[in-house]
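Q: Could you fold this chain for me?
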Amino acid sequence: MDASMFRKLHDPRTTVPALTLTIDGQPVSAEPGDSVAAVLLRLDPPFSRTTPVSGSPRTPYCMMGVCFECLASVDGVASTQTCLVQVREGMRVERQHGRRVLTMVMSQDTAVSDVDSLNGMPRGVSP
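A: Sure. Below is the predicted structure, expressed as structure tokens.
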């Protein structure tokens, strides 16, 4: 028996080819048209993120982009509303723990001297 109370219902007259995505580094099977949030709900445990303050797990709730409980990192983009994103072959999903971590990508032509030592940002850019 599945540990999650959510399961995919299938029409026995049809066959849909499965695709594979990774969630927290583990391969997971899904069907084209599934939302990432729906796939997260079928996993054990069925959470997509933890809160920044208490660390309690949060589960996708409204499934229509209103409540923001389904936030996760999808293909390296943090705070993605997973209820609005359909699964794709090879997609990488990471549950988001706590506050979103912002990363800054600098171009190769940014020299070390162009970076402000106080805030780590390129000179002239404030956080």
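A (continued): The two ends are 49 Å apart (CA to CA).
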